[in-house]
Amino acid sequence: xxxxxxxxxxxxxxxxxxxxxxxxxxxxxxxxxxxxxxxxxxxxxxxxxxxxxxxxxxxxxxxxxxxxxxxxxxxxxxxxxxxxxxxxxxxxxxxxxxxxxxxxxxxxxxxxxxxxxxxxxxxxxxxxxxxxxxxxxxxxxxxxxxxxxxxxxxxxxxxxxxxxxxxxxxxxxxxxxxxxxxxxxxxxxxxxxxxxxxxxxxxxxxxxxxxxxxxxxxxxxxxxxxxxxxxxxxxxxxxxxxxxxxxxxxxxxxxxxxxxxxxxxxxxxxxxxxxxxxxxxxxxxxxxxxxxxxxxxxxxxxxxxxxxxxxxxxxxxxxxxxxxxxxxxxxxxxxxxxxxxxxxxxxxxxxxxxxxxxxxxxxxxxxxxxxxxxxxxxxxxxxxxxxxxxxxxxxxxxxxxxxxxxxxxxxxxxxxxxxxxxxxxxxxxxxxxxxxxxxxxxxxxxxxxxxxxxxxxxxxxxxxxxxxxxxxxxxxxxxxxxxxxxxxxxx
Amino acid sequence: xxxxxxxxxxxxxxxxxxxxxxxxxxxxxxxxxxxxxxxxxxxxxxxxxxxxxxxxxxxxxxxxxxxxxxxxxxxxxxxxxxxxxxxxxxxxxxxxxxxxxxxxxxxxxxxxxxxxxxxxxxxxxxxxxxxx
Lengths: 491, 132
Description:
The complex is a heterodimer of chains A (491) and B (132).
Chain A: H1 2-46, H2 51-66, E1 70-77, E2 82-88, H3 92-103, E3 113-115, H4 122-129, E4 133-135, H5 139-142, H6 148-158, E5 162-170, E6 173-182, H7 191-265, H8 273-303, E7 312-314, H9 316-333, E8 337-340, E9 348-350, H10 352-369, E10 375-382, E11 386-393, H11 400-403, H12 417-423, H13 429-439, E12 444-448, E13 455-462, H14 466-470
Parallel strand pairs in A: 8-10
Antiparallel strand pairs in A: 1-2, 1-6, 2-3, 4-5, 5-6, 7-9, 10-11, 11-13, 12-13
Helix pairs in contact in A: 1-2, 1-7, 2-7, 3-6, 7-8, 8-13, 9-10, 10-13
Chain B: E1 7-11, H1 15-27, E2 31-35, H2 38-47, E3 52-55, H3 64-73, E4 83-87, H4 92-100, E5 105-108, H5 114-125
Parallel strand pairs in B: 1-2, 1-3, 3-4, 4-5
Helix pairs in contact in B: 2-3
């Protein structure tokens, strides 16, 4: 007796265990199925980052997976506090409903905006209360924008029996509402379908939010690109304007210069001493003005990065010799001695035109600031890596505190002003020279024993050795169409 | 030298500068013809017979570079002497372009004194025998 009771208990236990096991297995299977379905949906949606296609795929996902009639994505706009429909699934029911809304009801699908404060609309309620709602009546999600009759018409077209209203959140922030409608009655919706809908709702927020960010980033990039193109065009207009304006400026300045020269130099023009003085000051000032225009053009080109540096190997001593021949006439006017101290030098690797400009400027300055019978000497020093070019004069010199100001824009020193004014100096030459030397990977500095003790200007250039030639790109600035030429230096 | 046997053409659109160069050169005894814009200049150059031509670049109707180009393709009926650019455009690329198109010299108006212009002209004319 006891034995059969025990046997019965054992059988009951086994039956219970087996059924529990079976139910567990069923649950596991169902969960796996749900997870697989949800994963499938995400994978599809995540294929794209663009907001419009992410939203479209989201709208399609539930109808596709669960064979529902429609899916609609609405986005919540914080600024206007409204929920606006932005995408409907491509299912025939949804598309027919959209068509009817646009054409016969004349309330276009994407114009159906629901205030989040609407007391009756379930979409507003779902967002406010952070809850899923289910309704058999589409008026609950279309009203009050649509009348009851209009909503009934849409419901008929879609054949909808149940609509799920799913609020979408991300980190507690309302993102939008997803509507999924089916022709099934609510009681016929399976647990599996409910699971998918809830899982979907819980994670769709981050996807929509990310794609919105991505798209706005893309839009920002696009508008930045557009702005950049416009700026480039404006920059070119400005450049052209500056070029033309400076050329136009030079024409009348040349006329002033030419006529004052003519007045001063024609033997048939008789001038009083005062008139001569006035005219020669007019002439010098005009020369200065012309030089200023050129220097300012050069500075604007240097500072806007429009100057190319195209280095090659060349003999710096030969270039100094050429510059000496160029300034020979000026030197003779003041009886200045030009001296070149030759040394055994390797070739340098630099942009010859730019070095020419720097030499003209430094030697030109020496010519201006050295009194008659003085000497201007160019010598060199080389340590195998760089060549130092030293331009030394026996001129007015520079005080220690002024040395640092030399290479600044308009850094002309007080005691040099009168001399500069009478020689057509602009106060920009050394700044330009420094910029050019730096562009070529060199340095420039000055030293002086003090007032009336002469000055030495030194700049360095890289030696054209194996290492430098192997790294030629480091010393090169190629700009193509963007490049602007330098205006010539006058001395 | 008998400057009055040399025929010079000055192409310059700015009236003051044109008259300036005309006066400067006439005072030296040259026979000076002028053109104030590119098309007239091109016609005169094409007719030819100048011992030297001073040619601006920025000109109305036809610029100096175009005139050089046409002159190269379609040589003048009667030969001309050298064409020397007299301009305020000093950029290396334009200078190079002018020489490639057959210019013999390049003077920057704002950078040189009128006496230097005369010296340059004198030097360009030195090897040339005046045209009959």
